C-alpha cells in the first residue's frame, strides 16, 4: 500500500506521527539528534507535535538494475568522482618501478580508492544515485578496508589450498568457483556491516545470495564483464605504449570500472532489501525510487448525504445497494466506514471482511489509529484467520499497543511475522513484540528468545546494536 505525505500529497511518506496521525515526507520532518541506548542517533520529529515519529517501510517500486545498466556507466562521471579517479590514477602512474617506496605508495592509493568504492557501495545500498562526498574519512580510513579485503582474499586462497591438499584438484576447482561466485556477496556484507567476521560467515553471505536469487547470478555476470575489461585493455591494446602512459590508462580504466562495479553491487542490495531483510535509510532527494501519483479523491458528499437519509429512514438495504454500486466507497474514508458498519449490522460476514480490508487500508493511510484496532478486532472475531497486507497489519499492531491491547497487539505482530517472512517490517515486528512481552506481559524469557532470533536472522540490520543492548538490559533483570 502506498502511503503519501499528509502535507505534500505528491510525495511518498517516510514517517508517521503517533499523536496527530500525520504521514510525513522527507521535507516535513524536523531532524535532530538523540542519545539512545548508549549511542548518539539521528531522529526525526513531527513538526506539529515535536515528538519522535516512526519510520514507514519503502512501498514504492524500485527500477530493476538490469533496466538501468547505462546509468551505472554514467555514475562515475559525476564531477567530483571523475576528478578523484583522475587524480588517484595520475598519482599511481608515477609509481611504476619495482621498489619498496613505490609499492607502499601504490598500497596507500589502492586503499584510498577502495575506501571510496566501499562508500559508494554503502551509499548505493540505501538507494542513493549520487556519489558520496570526498570527506576526510576517504583519505584516512582506506587502509583498514584494504587490509580486510586482503584478508578476505587470503582466506579464500588458503581455503582453496587446503582443499587442494586434502581432496585434490577437482574439489579445489569447484571450491574456487564457489568462492568466486560468493565474493560479491562477501564484499556487500563487509560494506554494509564493516565486519570481517560477518563477511566471512557462510551463514550470512550464502543466505544473502539465495535470498537475492537469480538476480544475484545476473549481477555476477555483469561484474565479470566489467572486471575483465581493464585486463583486456592492458594486454590487447596497451603493450606498445610507453610504461607510464600504459599505467595511467590502465589505472583510469581500473578505477572507473571499480566504481561502476561497487555502485552496481550496492544498488542490487537496495533493490532486494526486502528479500534479504536489509533496512534502508532512504533519502528522497538522492533515491532511486520513483513515486507514483496518489489516487485522486472524488468528492462523495452527495452519496454520503443520500445514504445518511436512507439510514435514518430505516432503509438499510437500499443504502447498502447504493454503496455497493458506488466506487467512492473504496477511496472515501467516511463512505468506506459507513459501508463497513452497515455490513456488520446486517451480519453479511464475507462482504464485511472484504470491505474491512479496504477500510483498514484507508484508516492506516489516514492515520486514524483510534479506529484501526477496533475495526481489526471486529474482523478478527468474524474470521480467525483474517489476513492483511504487512504494512497495514504493522500499523494495526502499533495502534492496538497504544490502546492498551497488549495481547492483541502481540498476536498481530506474530501474524505479520508468520504470514510475511520476507517483509522488511519483520525485524521491527520482532523487536516491538519482544518489548510487549517484556514490558507489558511479564514474559521476559520469551522476549529474550525473540531478540536472539532477531539478531540471528538479521545480523546486519541497522538497529542491531540497539537490539543487542536491549537484550543485555533485560537479561540483567
Describe the model:
There is one protein chain. This protein is mainly alpha-helical and 477 residues long. Helix content is 65%, strand content 4%. It contains 21 helices and five strands. The strands form two sheets. Strands 2-1-5 form a three-stranded antiparallel β-sheet, with no helix packed on it. Strands 3-4 form a two-stranded antiparallel sheet. 37% of the residues are buried.
Short description, anyone?
This protein is mainly alpha-helical and 477 residues long.
Average predicted local confidence, pLDDT? 79
- The CA-CA distance between the termini, in Å, is 40 Å
Strand % is under 5%
Q: How many H/I helical runs?
A: 21
Characteristic key phrases:
477 residues, 21 helices, single chain, elongated, mainly alpha, three-stranded antiparallel sheet
Task: List strands and helices in order, with pairings.
Blueprint: E1 15-16, E2 23-24, E3 30-36, E4 39-45, E5 54-55, H1 69-74, H2 79-94, H3 100-124, H4 136-140, H5 142-167, H6 169-193, H7 196-199, H8 202-212, H9 214-236, H10 243-271, H11 273-276, H12 301-312, H13 316-325, H14 333-345, H15 349-366, H16 369-382, H17 390-402, H18 406-419, H19 426-439, H20 444-457, H21 464-475
Antiparallel strand pairs: 1-2, 1-5, 3-4
Helix pairs in contact: 2-3, 2-10, 3-5, 3-10, 5-6, 6-8, 9-10, 12-13, 13-14, 14-15, 15-16, 16-17, 17-18, 18-19, 19-20, 20-21
Amino acid at each position: 500500500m502506498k502511503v503519501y505525505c499528509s502535507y505534500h500529497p505528491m510525495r511518498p511518506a517516510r514517517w508517521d506521527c503517533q499523536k496527530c496521525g500525520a504521514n510525513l515526507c522527507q521535507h516535513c520532518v524536523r531532524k535532530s539528534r538523540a542519545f539512545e541506548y548508549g549511542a548518539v542517533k539521528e531522529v526525526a520529529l513531527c513538526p506539529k507535535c515535536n515528538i519522535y515519529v516512526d519510520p514507514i517501510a519503502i512501498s514504492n517500486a524500485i527500477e530493476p538494475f538490469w533496466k538501468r545498466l547505462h546509468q551505472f556507466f554514467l555514475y562515475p562521471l559525476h564531477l567530483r568522482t571523475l576528478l578523484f579517479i583522475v587524480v588517484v590514477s595520475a598519482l599511481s602512474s608515477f609509481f611504476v618501478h619495482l621498489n619498496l617506496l613505490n609499492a607502499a605508495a601504490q598500497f596507500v592509493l589502492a586503499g584510498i580508492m577502495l575506501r571510496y568504492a566501499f562508500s559508494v557501495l554503502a551509499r548505493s545500498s540505501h538507494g542513493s544515485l549520487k556519489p558520496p562526498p570526498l570527506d576526510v574519512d576517504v583519505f584516512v580510513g582506506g587502509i583498514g578496508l584494504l587490509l580486510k579485503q586482503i584478508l578476505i582474499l587470503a582466506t579464500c586462497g588458503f581455503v582453496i589450498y587446503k582443499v587442494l591438499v586434502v581432496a585434490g584438484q577437482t574439489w579445489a576447482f569447484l571450491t574456487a568457483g564457489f568462492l568466486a561466485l560468493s565474493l560479491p556477496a562477501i564484499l556487500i556484507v563487509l560494506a554494509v556491516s564493516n565486519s570481517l567476521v560477518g563477511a566471512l560467515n557462510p551463514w550470512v553471505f550464502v543466505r544473502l545470495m539465495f535470498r537475492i536469487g537469480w538476480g544475484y547470478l545476473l549481477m555476477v555476470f555483469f561484474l565479470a564483464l566489467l572486471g575483465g575489461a581493464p585486463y583486456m585493455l592492458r594486454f590487447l591494446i596497451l603493450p606498445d605504449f610507453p610504461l607510464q602512459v600504459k599505467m595511467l590508462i590502465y589505472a583510469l580504466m581500473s578505477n572507473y570500472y571499480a566504481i561502476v562495479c561497487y555502485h552496481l553491487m550496492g544498488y542490487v542490495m537496495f533493490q532486494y532489501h526486502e528479500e534479504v531483510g536489509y533496512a534502508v535509510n532512504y533519502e528522497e532527494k538522492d533515491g532511486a525510487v520513483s513515486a507514483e501519483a496518489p489516487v485522486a479523491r472524488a468528492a462523495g458528499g452527495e452519496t454520503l448525504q443520500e445514504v445518511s437519509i436512507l439510514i435514518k429512514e430505516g432503509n438499510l438495504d437500499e443504502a447498502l445497494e447504493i454503496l455497493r454500486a458506488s466506487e467512492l466507497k473504496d477511496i472515501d474514508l467516511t463512505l468506506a466506514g459507513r459501508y463497513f458498519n452497515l455490513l456488520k449490522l446486517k451480519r453479511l460476514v464475507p462482504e464485511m471482511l472484504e470491505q474491512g480490508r479496504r477500510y483498514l487500508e484507508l484508516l492506516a493511510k489516514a492515520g486514524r489509529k483510534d479506529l484501526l484496532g477496533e475495526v481489526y478486532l471486529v474482523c478478527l472475531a468474524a474470521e480467525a484467520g483474517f489476513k492483511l497486507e504487512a504494512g497495514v497489519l504493522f500499523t494495526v499492531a502499533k495502534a492496538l499497543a497504544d490502546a492498551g491491547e497488549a495481547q492483541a497487539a502481540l498476536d498481530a505482530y506474530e501474524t505479520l511475522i508468520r504470514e510475511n517472512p520476507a517483509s522488511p517490517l519483520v525485524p521491527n515486528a520482532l523487536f516491538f513484540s519482544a518489548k510487549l512481552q517484556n514490558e507489558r506481559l511479564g514474559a521476559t524469557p520469551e522476549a529474550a528468545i525473540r531478540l536472539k532470533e532477531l539478531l540471528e536472522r538479521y545480523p546486519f540490520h541497522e538497529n542491531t546494536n540497539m537490539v543487542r543492548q536491549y537484550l543485555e538490559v533485560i537479561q540483567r533483570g
